[in-house]
Each structure stands twice: as C-alpha cells, then as structure tokens.
Amino acid sequence: MAECECLAKCPFFNDKMQGMDGTATMVKRRYCLDNYENCARYIVFKQLGREKVPADLFPIQKDRLPAILAQTT
Ligand code: SF4
Fold it and tell me: How far apart are CA 58 and CA 73, in angstroms?
C-alpha cells in the first residue's frame, strides 16, 4: 500500500474542493493513503493528464468516468 503521487497538488487531499464533508478524512485514508489506483481523480489524471481532471470530481465518483474519459479533446 502506498500514497498517491498526486497528494501535494490534489485539491481533494488539500481540502480545496467545494462540497467536502465529514467523510473526506475517511476517503483520504481509504484512497489517497492506500488504494489510490481506485480513485476517480487518479484514473483521469493517469489517462488524460492533470489538467483534464474535473474540479468537482470526487474520488468515489467512478460512475462519472465513462463520460469524462470519452472526452479526449
Ligand atoms: S488518491 Fe485521488 S483524491 Fe487522493 S491525492 Fe490521489 S488523485 Fe487526489
């Protein structure tokens, strides 16, 4: 288990996203500090690049990935 390579610049990890709530600490522990390969933000980062990660995408929102990853332009 390892930390996500995006920690330092990630708006979610650094509490910069709108709509963050009390579950964020748990999500950070579960994704950012452990299972980051399953984070929706990380998956977009890896496939499309940092600039393509939607500002409002939360780690648990893998259901949004097909639509996001389909936008390759
Ligand atoms: S696991 Fe996801 S939310 Fe956490 S630091 Fe990495 S990209 Fe950001």
Answer: 22
Name every residue whose Cβ is closer than 8 Å to that of residue 69 and which is 6 or more positions away in sequence.
43, 44, 47, 48
Q: Which of 6, 43, 61 to mutate to test the pocket of ligand 1 (most atoms within 8 A of CB)?
A: 6
Which residue's structure tokens are 């390969």?
Answer: 37
pTM above 0.90, yes or no: yes
Where exactly are the structural domains of the chain? 7-70
Per this entry, what is the length of the chain?
73
The string of pLDDT tens digits covering residues 4-13 is 999 999 999 9
